[in-house]
Specification:
single chain, about 170 residues, alpha/beta, four-stranded parallel beta sheet, two-stranded antiparallel sheet, 6 helices, globular
Length: about 170
Amino acid sequence: MKAKILISACLMGFKVRYNGSEKSPMTEQLRRWRSEDRLVIHCPELAAGLATPRLPAELSGGDGAAALSGLACILESDGSDVTQAYLLAAWLALKTAREAGCQFALLTDGSPTCGSQKIYDGQFKGVTRAGQGVAAALLRQHGIEVFAEHQSAALAQRIAQFERNQDDLL
């Protein structure tokens, strides 16, 4: 069984980030996974109807897991509470991953939605802290392994292990 990966659209060169940019040039590993039909390209924020460009948004009062529990919120730089739109984004990411049979996700770190290792601290000063965004938290809660874009080598190793284990079951 070939492992499927939900991947942030901005990592594939789509200009969907809050500022209308992509995250980084596509790597050779991503090209290979795309040619192997492993990638499910998705932007949770666009799926939830958020515009590009849009104001920067950061988690306030906790991380994505806290926001899913109603203990934190997501605010735009002008103070607008956009928590509900970002929670919808997280649920749409989970729905997309499930429908496509994704076991893994490779998401953009730092995002209030996709951050898996770090998020911004909620002060809009460019400072990050350890934590995860709402989609990363929700995906993990539902058994999907989440990796940040700088962890593609670790993801490749995990996929190889996953596929060996699948072969052993057959």
